Amino acid sequence: MIKKEAMKIISSKQIATDTVEMVLENEYISNHATPGQFLHIAITGHTLRRPLSIAAVDSKARTVTILFKIIGSGTETLATYQVGETIDVLGPNGNGFPVQTGQKPATVLLIGGGIGVPPIYFLGTQLKKFGIQVQSIIGFQSRDYVFYENEFQALGETFVVTNDGSYGYKGFVTDVLDKTSRFDRYYSCGPLPMLRAVSDNLRGNEGYLSFEERMGCGVGACYACVIPTEDEAGYKKICQDGPVFRANEVIL
Amino acid sequence: MIKKEAMKIISSKQIATDTVEMVLENEYISNHATPGQFLHIAITGHTLRRPLSIAAVDSKARTVTILFKIIGSGTETLATYQVGETIDVLGPNGNGFPVQTGQKPATVLLIGGGIGVPPIYFLGTQLKKFGIQVQSIIGFQSRDYVFYENEFQALGETFVVTNDGSYGYKGFVTDVLDKTSRFDRYYSCGPLPMLRAVSDNLRGNEGYLSFEERMGCGVGACYACVIPTEDEAGYKKICQDGPVFRANEVIL
Amino acid sequence: MIDLSVTLPGLNLQNPIMPASGCFGFGREYSQFYDLGKLGAVIMKAATGEARLGNKTPRVAETASGMLNAIGLQNPGVEKIVETEIPFLSQFHIPIIANVAGSTIEEYEKVVTVLNESTDLAAIELNISCPNVKEGGIQFGIDPEMAATVTEKVKKRTRVPVYVKLSPNVTNIVDMAKAIEAAGADGLSMINTLTGMQIHLPSKAPLIANKTGGLSGPAIKPIAIRMIYEVKQHVTIPIIGMGGIETAEDVLEFLLAGADAVAIGTANFLNPFVCPDIIEQLPAVLKKYGFTSVKEATGGAHQ
Amino acid sequence: MIDLSVTLPGLNLQNPIMPASGCFGFGREYSQFYDLGKLGAVIMKAATGEARLGNKTPRVAETASGMLNAIGLQNPGVEKIVETEIPFLSQFHIPIIANVAGSTIEEYEKVVTVLNESTDLAAIELNISCPNVKEGGIQFGIDPEMAATVTEKVKKRTRVPVYVKLSPNVTNIVDMAKAIEAAGADGLSMINTLTGMQIHLPSKAPLIANKTGGLSGPAIKPIAIRMIYEVKQHVTIPIIGMGGIETAEDVLEFLLAGADAVAIGTANFLNPFVCPDIIEQLPAVLKKYGFTSVKEATGGAHQ
Ligand SMILES: Cc1cc2nc3c(=O)[nH]c(=O)nc-3n(C[C@H](O)[C@H](O)[C@H](O)COP(=O)(O)OP(=O)(O)OC[C@H]3O[C@@H](n4cnc5c(N)ncnc54)[C@H](O)[C@@H]3O)c2cc1C
Ligand SMILES: Cc1cc2nc3c(=O)[nH]c(=O)nc-3n(C[C@H](O)[C@H](O)[C@H](O)COP(=O)(O)OP(=O)(O)OC[C@H]3O[C@@H](n4cnc5c(N)ncnc54)[C@H](O)[C@@H]3O)c2cc1C
Ligand SMILES: Cc1cc2nc3c(=O)[nH]c(=O)nc-3n(C[C@H](O)[C@H](O)[C@H](O)COP(=O)(O)O)c2cc1C
Ligand SMILES: Cc1cc2nc3c(=O)[nH]c(=O)nc-3n(C[C@H](O)[C@H](O)[C@H](O)COP(=O)(O)O)c2cc1C
Ligand code: FES
Ligand code: FES
């Protein structure tokens, strides 16, 4: 259930160019969040909240980690918040990546692009706990934007890709798909063009994609964040029905 | 000359109910401010600056003191600013109380009401330096709002008045006029009804009044803050021509 | 004791606070946060004759103290609303108001006819800001004659009182209000959103897929207050006021301008508890400014 | 090198940035802060036939991301402006634009006739948002025919190009723009303020002495952008855009929507250096989004 909670900032640090990792303390959310869910964060001076994925939880320390890229005025302001301040958050929102759905996979492929990397990291840590074998592809603009490489290596084999080749493999995440070993299922999060390319390339595989869309309410009431679906319902809401959908459920 | 300056908050403390005293560091303004002038202060989240009088300067320490009452969202936010932060200020604005104009007075009466007290305190300290004898009437709503009593006592005889009689004399500042000794000139700042009563009661005396009006630019460009005058010009601008006017120059 | 109750045609309100149409869906999502039984009433998302998919995304953009939206009337259609949404809301025992939209007069008539099947509906809010497809896309809401016609036709078909929701995108809001009052409306609801646009710099194109969107939120409050103040001087039917309300002080400002009750839209997105929070704070605010009831405050700025 | 220059009828602008009428007086105050010679041009405070005292105070109020003003055209009268203000401004060698207001067509004619005496005037901005006293207070700016008439009459009397300033308080801004273009205007200036109101809770009355005031500032930017975008599709004369500009990014947004140059009003109050600051930042912003000149960006959102 989504609650409106105050989360205390435990740490906030820049971990790559324009990329901030923030650890937030809150018992309820750290106990209830699952991978792929997001927080809907109020930011001073802004009419709308900002959706940010949950990148990790530590239920013992009762903390939740978020990772965000500074791309506009909201994330810019959020980056100025100091340790000790509290932020007003709705969460956990949405439906995350299904892990127990259907036949439990033995091996999975994680594919994250840019700021789509955080939620699949959280997912990877969960999968590993369930004894599922994980391999990952993470893509970034360039060397200065790379983060969490070691964290992913700790989960399993990891391919780092940069668009300009300044670090790891050069190109797009789809360019290294042929380097991966067989997998039962894939999970992906990143910009829409990347998700399109991934689902095209991996057609026929069972896959789950996490989408982004501009949101109003973030809880399913305003119909701002819809995505066309294959069934007769026509549209699903990313904030409530998603942000994760089966690769063949929605129209890309 | 008005400049746009960054002022660093050196201290900020509540000195009476809803009343905050803030000491700000800035060399230019501490060197140029005269009593009756004001700062035009930018406050996060607000389209318009807030005019606040200068209550004291210490040109050695390069500090300027302001005193404000929390009455709305701007002053509320200003009160939350922390020591060490800087605020964006235009100043010093306006024309202050004339001290050297005409024949130098031997004795003056200062009359301040509520949040009109700060500028006449600054004036009092200046007058004292010039060897002018000062007596003061300062009025407040009630006991909890009284501030700077000792500071005024240090300048000369002081009458404290509260509207409800919870401290000092009961009533309005005009109710204790008969207790004052003879004076050559008076200076007053406070709410408009008080200024009206003061100038009515002291008709025939040389007096200077400091006015408040809602401001746009605060520098004389927008014509928001006018006050009707006795001469053919019709209107004067409080922010530029004032805030101080001769008692018989403007129409109350 | 401060009396928050307000009685309007068809609406016995325990307090003057209701969520605005389109910002609260059909109440399901916000019912997770609090008991909707606390509300004065609830205004549902627009209902049209058939299910509509609405516009392409992006459908919303943030602006200074406001937002743009172009949802495009996505809704499951009036029949589904009568079948599943009104029954859901009726459990809260507060007046339910249906927001009715359409592209032709016939569609408006159809929607209200289907709504007659529900015994749990308290009133209709007639959304005349939709483009009229027959008249080449001109909105019913910007022409006094067209607005009067649709009001009359709808009044003839419905059992419940009709509050016509005014568009602020007009030269003369008073003419609109007078024409609608003369056409038999039981009340007015004002204001709907102002048409706006944001250009997305990286793509050098309007950000909202529909190009234009409706501006709402605190940015438009001064316009809402002005229009309500003006209209109040020329009509006698009650006004449900809205546009940028975020606090109990804002509610009082609307009441003083002439609103009998208010609706809260955009502010729900930032604070899902905004309606119950305001209901809780309103008595203290009324008291602070010397009022003992909501009724007493209505129109208080017209002396 | 990014080319900031823009050439419009009567205006050879070194950059597209000018302070908006009424927010910059006659430049004297802001000339303390910086060299006005940096500006693209300057638009003076409204000039009327005789000196005017304007409205009672309070004349301004703050709103969410905006402000209301009802100054009421206080100005020393056109003769004094020609005698003392234009000569003061001419020392900065930038185009000077006079904002012309009036309550009757005759007054407009008088003002522009007197302005002809000045050889230092580059253009006129015709402020048609003033109430027309002869027509019972209806504004010239809300009726296409009246707007066209005043435009024609003024065009006949003046030597310099005329930019007509549109009021946004209309149902159909395109009709206004087309009528004014047809009447011979050399350009448009848009938008003026939206009519709004704020109720002062302690006094239970409108805060602004004039009751209503004009809403300006970032709050109205989405409305300005929408109107410019719409008008740009229907006229060929140039547009000076304004309404809520605070940053160089905002300027680019106006250019993309269809403005050829821009004016900055309310933002001067918060930051007296806003115009030179934006002039300095504009090249980098244009470059960031792939433009090499201002001209190239104009209308860029219309593909
Ligand atoms: C479910 C979900 C999860 C997300 N998780 C992350 C994350 O973990 N880390 C991260 O850095 N970013 C994430 N994003 C994107 C993030 O929400 C935007 O980058 C952020 O809202 C931008 O805000 P801004 O004020 O800085 O930018 P601005 O461009 O100034 O924002 C203006 C408006 O557009 C919205 N907006 C802009 N870009 C996006 C976008 N890509 N998606 C949705 N709304 C957008 C903003 O929320 C705001 O309402 C996520 C988005 C969604 C929908
Ligand atoms: C020359 C001058 C000197 C002043 N000196 C002091 C001082 O030393 N200490 C002090 O506490 N107050 C002083 N004031 C009053 C002070 O400016 C207001 O109390 C303050 O602006 C209120 O801001 P707010 O956001 O809290 O209130 P709000 O009511 O939320 O403000 C809304 C708007 O109204 C304006 N406003 C509200 N009240 C006043 C007022 N009385 N005068 C002018 N503008 C107002 C605000 O500036 C703002 O633009 C002075 C005013 C002037 C004109
Ligand atoms: C996302 C969104 C959707 C809306 N949908 C509708 C609608 O379906 N019908 C309607 O009459 N008004 C609709 N509105 C307008 C609101 O009901 C309200 O009139 C307007 O937003 C002003 O109020 P606010 O500033 O409190 O949001 C919508 C507004 C928003 C923000
Ligand atoms: C205090 C003030 C005074 C104004 N006076 C005039 C005026 O005399 N003539 C005019 O055409 N517009 C006047 N305007 C409107 C501005 O020129 C401008 O069109 C409007 O404020 C929108 O721009 P902004 O949001 O940048 O302020 C005035 C605006 C303000 C805020
Ligand atoms: S953001 Fe409101 S429905 Fe998803
Ligand atoms: S506030 Fe602008 S002239 Fe005084």
From TrEMBL, chains A, B:
[2Fe-2S] cluster binds at residues 217, 222, 225, 239. Binds 1 [2Fe-2S] cluster per subunit. FAD binds at residues 50-53, 74-75. InterPro entries: Cbr1-like_FAD-bd_dom, Cyt_c3_hydrogenase_gsu, Dihydroorotate_DH_ele_sf, Dihydroorotate_DH_Fe-S-bd, Dihydroorotate_DHASE_ETsu, FAD-bd_FR_type, FNR_nucleotide-bd, PyrK_electron_transfer. Pathway: Pyrimidine metabolism; UMP biosynthesis via de novo pathway; orotate from (S)-dihydroorotate (NAD(+) route): step 1/1. Keywords: 2Fe-2S, Electron transport, FAD, Flavoprotein, Iron, Iron-sulfur, Metal-binding, Pyrimidine biosynthesis, Transport. GO terms for biological process: 'de novo' UMP biosynthetic process. It comes from the Bacteria. Its cofactor is [2Fe-2S] cluster; FAD. SUPFAM superfamilies: Ferredoxin reductase-like, C-terminal NADP-linked domain (SSF52343), Riboflavin synthase domain-like (SSF63380). Residues 2-99 form the FAD-binding FR-type domain. Pfam families: DHODB_Fe-S_bind, FAD_binding_6. GO terms for molecular function: 2 iron, 2 sulfur cluster binding; electron transfer activity; flavin adenine dinucleotide binding; metal ion binding; oxidoreductase activity. Responsible for channeling the electrons from the oxidation of dihydroorotate from the FMN redox center in the PyrD type B subunit to the ultimate electron acceptor NAD(+). Heterotetramer of 2 PyrK and 2 PyrD type B subunits. HAMAP family: DHODB_Fe_S_bind. Belongs to the PyrK family. NCBIfam families: PRK00054.1-4 (NF000799). This is Dihydroorotate dehydrogenase B (NAD(+)), electron transfer subunit.
UniProtKB/TrEMBL annotation, chains C, D:
It is found in: Cytoplasm. Keywords: Cytoplasm, Flavoprotein, FMN, NAD, Oxidoreductase, Pyrimidine biosynthesis. It is an enzyme of class 1 (oxidoreductase). InterPro entries: Aldolase_TIM (IPR013785), DHO_dehydrogenase (IPR050074), DHOD_1B (IPR033888), Dihydroorotate_DH_1 (IPR024920), Dihydroorotate_DH_1_2 (IPR012135), Dihydroorotate_DH_cat (IPR005720), Dihydroorotate_DH_CS (IPR001295), Dihydroorotate_DH_I (IPR049622). The keyword Thylakoid does not apply. One of its GO terms (cellular component) is cytoplasm. Residues 4-286 form the Dihydroorotate dehydrogenase catalytic domain. CDD domains: DHOD_1B_like (cd04740). Gene3D superfamilies: Aldolase class I. Binds 1 FMN per subunit. This is Dihydroorotate dehydrogenase. The gene is pyrD.
